[in-house]
Design brief:
10 strands; binds FE2/S2 (inorganic) cluster; three-stranded antiparallel sheet; alpha+beta; Rieske Iron-sulfur Protein; 3 helices; four-stranded antiparallel sheet; 172 residues
Length: 172
């Protein structure tokens, strides 16, 4: 009788110890484990304050090159896009991401902040077949059938979070 009561007390104390240990370990493991999004490379964080105005940084997102564009303050862009879809979607944002894959045949366009050819204002130039895009990725000239793709993105604490729905929804 004495032995079984002691066994029962021992089991109860042991069980409480296990529960306590799980309570301590769970938040630690949860904090250390990368999210499913970051494991898949689906969330990329870029410090936009480290990009000089008027410059573009190329990062990788889901295995694709992505431009992170930092527009100059008060940019008066002198060009005319065939369609102004992206510039409307990105209105009011001075830093944003565009998938750096030409919508014609998939080359990576080049950022020309001083302009190129007959365009004397900032453009993306795809030299493969002479495609030109505005800083927002809208088609200005050449064979690209549509604007550069805009990935989902959000801005938080000066960081652009590519892959997180925010100020723009992913378009198909
Ligand atoms: S791949 Fe860009 S213009 Fe053809």
């Amino acid at each position: 009788m004495e032995t079984s009561r002691r066994d029962l007390m021992g089991l109860a104390i042991g069980g409480l110890g296990v529960i306590g240990a799980l309570g301590v370990l769970y938040p630690i493991v949860k904090t250390l484990a990368p999210s499913a999004a970051s494991l898949a490379g689906a969330l990329v964080e870029v410090d936009v304050n480290s990009i000089p105005e008027g410059q573009v940084r190329v990062v990788s997102w889901k295995g694709k090159p992505v431009f992170v564009v930092k527009l100059p303050q008060g940019l008066q862009w002198g060009g005319k896009a065939k369609e102004e879809k992206n510039s409307k979607l990105l209105q009011g944002q001075n830093a944003f991401a565009l998938v750096a894959v030409c919508t014609h045949l998939g080359c990576v366009p080049l950022w020309k902040p001083q302009g190129e050819a007959e365009f004397n204002y900032p453009v993306f130039h795809c030299p493969c077949h002479g495609g030109f895009y505005s800083p927002w990725g809208d088609v200005v000239a050449g064979p690209p059938p549509r604007a550069l793709h805009i990935p989902p993105q959000a801005i938080r604490d000066g960081k652009l979070l590519i892959g997180e729905p925010g100020f723009i929804k992913e378009l198909t």
